[in-house]
Q: What sequence folds into this?
């Protein structure tokens, strides 16, 4: 389990220290408060360690952080907090009571200084679902990304690779079958691939993903990752804005699926701007679910990014999302009473 993240002078952060839930972790905050960067640094380190021999881990982490964040000309020092003079950056990630320590400064080129306290490869599956859905763009993407310098963060290539993993042998477990059936009912079919093309197969035939709504493609991706075993016990799922291009009526289903995955041992990290996402998790969670809410915000005086957290959505209210919905409600009330909308 990913247990803790400590950052100092990293991208937008002066200092950050947060401990995670073993289940669902939801991050909210205004644009530019670092939600996606938290997901990316956790994913990059975990993906780099997965399957690497102990002697290769330091190089793998440097390369993966570079590929995920894509700083200008590969200079990792550009990920340091922008301040006058020399800025020293430190990153500490704790997993299963063991730590990865990374450090660099704003003049660092391509290699982090890393100390890794694991004496064996990490076997956890790590999945990063970016905001932009990629399965419709899968044909030819592998070879293009591998052979040419194209400006795509590696999370896009990674998720396409994960989607192409063949189904696991044997019958799926009852839990996996139930989750796949839940998604199948929403998308009204199942996902198949032919070569590098994906199709939704249902009673009407096979519909290529290029003609399928993007929100449906996202659910199709989730179906594939459950079918091929990428989302099994011990996996870590990082999902940036699951609500993007998804009708709010489908968000309840997504929340139910992720809560079920959490109960089966998948740790989930979500960055969102959606009140519906937050409230669905808040309403659906039970005592068997472990859910933690995080709000990132700027201090009015120092402009440093701070955070607060809680086990309930109300623990982080008020926040910018709840404020926006309150403002809309107030405007509607004013209009119905014949007053000006401010």
A:
């Amino acid at each position: 389990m990913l247990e803790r993240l400590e950052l100092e002078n990293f991208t937008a952060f002066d200092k950050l220290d947060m401990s995670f839930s073993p289940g669902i972790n939801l991050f909210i905050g205004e644009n530019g408060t670092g939600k996606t960067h938290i997901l990316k640094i956790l994913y990059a380190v975990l993906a780099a360690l997965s399957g690497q021999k102990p002697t290769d881990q330091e190089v793998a982490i440097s390369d993966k952080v570079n590929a995920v964040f894509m700083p200008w000309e590969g200079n990792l020092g550009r990920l340091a907090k922008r301040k006058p003079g020399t800025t020293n950056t430190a990153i500490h990630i704790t997993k299963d009571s063991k730590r990865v320590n990374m450090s660099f400064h704003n003049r660092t080129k391509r290699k982090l200084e890393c100390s890794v306290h694991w004496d064996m490869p990490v076997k956890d599956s790590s999945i990063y679902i970016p905001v932009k859905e990629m399965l419709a763009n899968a044909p030819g993407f592998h070879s293009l990304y591998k052979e040419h310098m194209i400006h795509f963060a590696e999370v896009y290539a990674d998720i396409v690779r994960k989607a192409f993993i063949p189904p696991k042998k044997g019958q799926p477990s009852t839990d996996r079958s139930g989750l796949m059936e839940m998604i199948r009912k929403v998308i009204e079919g199942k996902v198949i691939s032919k070569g590098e093309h994906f199709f939704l197969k249902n009673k009407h035939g096979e519909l290529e993903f290029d003609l399928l709504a993007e929100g449906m493609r996202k659910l199709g991706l989730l179906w594939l990752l459950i079918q091929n075993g990428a989302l099994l016990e011990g996996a870590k799922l990082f999902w940036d804005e699951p609500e993007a291009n998804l009708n709010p009526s489908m968000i309840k289903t997504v929340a139910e699926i992720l809560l079920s995955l959490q109960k089966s041992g998948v740790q989930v990290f979500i960055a969102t701007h959606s009140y519906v996402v937050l409230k669905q998790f808040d309403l659906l969670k039970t005592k068997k679910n472990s859910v933690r809410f995080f709000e990132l915000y700027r201090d009015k005086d120092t402009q440093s990014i701070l955070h607060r957290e809680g086990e309930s959505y109300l623990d982080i209210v008020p926040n910018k999302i709840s404020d926006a919905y309150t403002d809309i409600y107030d405007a509607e009330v004013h209009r119905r009473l014949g007053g000006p909308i401010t």
Remarks:
- The chain has two domains: 1-125+232-342, 135-231.
- Residues 320-336 form the longest helix (17 residues).
